[in-house]
Design brief:
CATH class of the largest domain: Mainly Alpha
CATH superfamily of the largest domain: Intergrase catalytic core
Number of domains: 3
Structural class: mainly alpha
Helix content: 40-55%
Largest sheet: 3 strands, antiparallel
Number of helices: 14
Order of helices and strands: HHHHHHHEEEHHHHHHH
Strand content: under 5%
CATH architecture of the largest domain: Orthogonal Bundle
Radius of gyration: 22 Å
Length: 316
């Protein structure tokens, strides 16, 4: 086993938690481990020499396979950088589309999306979506929740007076508390008053009907795609945005706010990691590279702030 293999499990889990589906990653990492074990057995990072040699180690006429090998090294290097290990990121381009970062709304697009959610019409096949969707999508975005977490909130687990949501048995069977700001709590309170008259005694906060409990991934994906189509947003992206992208947007904007306010980035990431229910701060650190990609003007500032941080944060 090579020295670099120790980082593969956490890197793979981080990418999975961020919503990436990379079928090629596991076989490429297996091959990369064998290559490092033979040619760079004691090396636990990515250098120019090791990256270049491995990318072109296997001769292939397939541009797709070459792109996947390049991307494997890029994801690994970005992960290593996110935990404070210096690593080389290949700057090799192959004609064709690379796997892109999630497509995120800008301010105007976000406003248009929510306006579109507010205009959803009644549909017999999707009862009460016109009430649920506008609030549900705002909760996902403003609280940075996973889709499943927002859908399965129970009435007993939300305190609208205090603006507190208890997220129970989330990923990794962990519980946590999420706070809403005053405007979102007020919106949820108004929704609850109206919806309680429509569906009294419901178990779930966003319960669909008497016979159908909480929304499913299929439901919210369907609503999301319909709003994109109704607002014309589906034509403004090369890769279609997803509901999970709203959680990404929450994280990116939270880090952007930290950078703008000059807050302690190490502490900010630590609290953000807990708030979002991440397995570790390493997973949250990965969003910094998304910020760099989406907001290039912050690249220098991020580099200067994160230099030497690694994962050694201040203790509580």
């Amino acid at each position: 086993m090579s020295a670099i293999k120790q980082y593969f499990p956490n890197m793979t889990q981080t990418l999975h938690n961020l919503g990436y589906s990379l079928d090629y990653l596991e076989p490429n990492l297996t091959e990369l481990d064998l290559f490092y074990d033979k040619s760079y057995p004691g090396q636990s990072t990515v250098t120019f020499e090791s990256a270049t040699e491995w990318i072109y180690f296997k001769k292939t006429d397939s541009k797709k396979q070459l792109r996947e090998r390049i991307l494997t090294v890029k994801y690994l290097s970005r992960y290593l950088l996110s935990i404070g290990i210096d690593a080389y990121i290949p700057d090799i381009k192959v004609k064709g589309d690379f796997h892109k970062h999630p497509q995120l709304f800008n301010d105007m697009q976000l406003c248009r999306f929510f306006a579109g959610a507010d205009r959803l019409k009644t549909n017999k096949r999707s009862p009460n979506r016109e009430y649920i969707a506008p609030v549900l999508f705002r909760v996902i975005y403003a609280c940075g929740l996973r889709n499943s977490e927002a859908c399965t909130i129970k009435k007993k687990d939300i305190d609208l007076k205090k603006g507190i949501v208890k997220v129970i048995h989330s990923k990794g069977d962990k519980d946590r508390i999420v706070f809403m700001d005053r405007m979102l709590a007020g919106l949820c309170n108004r929704f609850d008053i109206v919806y309680s008259s429509i569906l009294p005694g419901r178990e779930y906060f966003f319960q669909i009907s008497r016979n159908r409990l909480h929304p499913t991934k299929y439901n919210i994906d369907d609503w999301f795609d319909l709003i994109l189509k109704n607002t014309g947003l589906d034509k403004e992206f090369s890769v279609k945005p997803t509901v999970h992208g709203m959680r990404h947007l929450f994280a990116v904007r939270s880090m952007k706010k930290c950078l703008e306010q000059g807050e302690n980035l190490g502490n900010w990431i630590k609290y953000l990691s807990i708030y979002m229910g991440h397995e570790s701060t390493e997973e949250t650190m990965y969003y910094l590279h998304m910020v760099e990609a989406l907001i290039p003007e912050y690249q220098e500032k991020i580099s200067s702030i994160t230099e030497g941080i690694g994962v050694a944060y201040e203790e509580f």
